[in-house]
Amino acid sequence: MEYVVIALVIVILAVVILGLLAVGRRSRGVDLPPTPRTPPEGGAGGGGPGGERDDSGTITTVPRPGPPTGTVGGDELEVAETVAPPVERPAPAQGRLIRLRARLARSQSTLGKGLLSLLSRDRIDEDTWEEIESALITADVGVGPTQELVERLRTRVRVEGAATADHAREILREELLTLVGPDLDRTLDTARRETNPAVFLVVGVNGTGKTTTVGKLARVLVAEDKDVVLGAADTFRAAAADQLATWGDRVGVPTVRGPEAGDPASVAFDTVKAGVEQEADVVIIDTAGRLHTKTGLMDELGKVKRVIEKQAPVSEVLLVIDATTGQNGLTQARVFSEVVDVTGIVLTKLDSTAKGGIIVAVQRALGVPVKLVGLGEGPDDLAPFEPAAFVDALLGE
User: Fold this and answer.
1) For residue range 226-280, what is the model confidence (pLDDT) as tens digits?
2) pLDDT the model gives residue 47
3) ∠ at Cα 391 (385, 396), nearest 5°?
4) Percentage of the residues of the chain whose pLDDT score is greater than 70
5) Which residues on neighbouring strands pair with residue 75, listed in sequence order?
């Protein structure tokens, strides 16, 4: 009898334990439903992409697998999928200045309208000529070019007269255009030399917008179907390389960079080397801003250029000048030109408080043309300089 009782107790305990285990498994989700039948893809009764149909005819969504996961040192690791940002197609560079002429005219037309008003007077006396001269000097044209322009205007008015506003406008337009220099070669030298890309070195003082200019220049060249490589040789400003790389990424252009506070000449050398290896059309090298009065920094800039030329000749040395600095920019320009033989000027912020005469003054000071002008903060607001469009903007046309 004792054995029967013991056996009965054991059976009851076993049943209770099994029942508790079954409940626990269900609460943890271990109990799985029967595996549904999956019809052949595209066959009758198929659940379609991303789904399965069970015996009751209900479609059960099958989640897409997430990113791979794992553990490193006991910590859970999730590897996220990287999606490359879309590459932009910049606006064509041809005709940008014409398209942006209205914006330029709003800030520059004061000079042109003032001169037209003076030249259209019934009687032009010495006081009038002094006012014209003062207006030109105030517009940063410079003393020499101003005297030259006034003398030519005097001669034409004396010979032809300026009885009507239209005639005065015609005379002023022709003489301003001559002063700006319509015959100067303002093209960028993008020609490859045998196996070497064209190399652009971009220089200037602090705060003129060099890195932004390099990024916008890359867009101008990409719009012309050029393969471009950028070089972040401004190793002294912490964010310069990141800023330049962001500009490059937007148009699918690679950026060569070095360690922070590294040797700028080394970065420049590696950039040109990469351009040769990748068979690029143009290499553009951004340099650190430097004061023209700091001899050591200027000597370093000369070193950068010499190191580049061990790989390939430098096609363009573009000096970036803030147009709002006016005549102060001329001193900067002269010193840079002595160190690295500037081939072209880029005037930034020409659409703000700048006075258009600086174009004439800087060209006269250096004997090199303004090749590009910055007309705003937009990514495509760097335009090849077109003298006729600029003069028309001065006159408010």
Assistant:
1) 999 999 998 888 789 999 999 999 999 999 998 887 899 999 999 999 999 999 9
2) 38
3) 120
4) 71
5) 72
In the chain, what are the domains? Answer: 101-180 (1.20.120.140), 198-394 (3.40.50.300)
User: pTM of the full predicted structure?
Assistant: 0.75
**Backbone φ, ψ for residue 96 (5° rounding):** -60, -40
Q: How far is it between the farthest Cα atoms of the chain?
A: 145
Three-state secondary-structure class, residue 178 = helix
State the Cα–Cα distance between residues 342 and 201, nearest whole angstrom: 9
pLDDT given for residue 177 in this prediction? 93
Q: What are phi and psi of 355, to 5 degrees?
A: -110, 125
Structure tokens at 32: 């799985």
Instruction: Kindly state the average pLDDT of the residues 326-339.
Output: 79
Residue 65 CB contacts under 8 Å (≥ 6 apart), including other chains: none
- Residue 267 token pair: 């970065």
* Residue 77 bridge partners (DSSP): 70
pLDDT value, residue 260? 82
Beta strand 382-384 with 370-374: parallel, antiparallel or unpaired?
antiparallel
**Type of residue found at 249:** D
pLDDT at 352: 62
Our CA angle for 56, 59, 61, nearest 5°, is 140
Dihedral over alpha carbons 244, 246, 250, 251 (to 10 degrees): 30
Rounded CA gap, 265 and 268, in Å? Answer: 5
Query: Among 160, 95, 162, which Cα is nearest to 128's?
Result: 162
Sorting pLDDT into bands at 50, 70 and 90, what band is 378?
confident
Strands 282-287 and 59-61: unpaired
| Cβ-proximal residues to 333 (8 Å cutoff; 6+ apart), any chain | 319, 321, 342, 345, 362, 365, 366
* Per-residue confidence band for 152, with pLDDT thresholds at 50, 70 and 90: very high
The encoded tokens of residue 357 equal 């005469």
Angle between helical axes of 101-119 and 126-138 (0-180°, round to 10): 160
Q: Are 384 and 372 a contacting pair, CB within 8 Å?
A: yes
Q: Terminus-to-terminus CA distance in the chain, angstroms?
A: 121
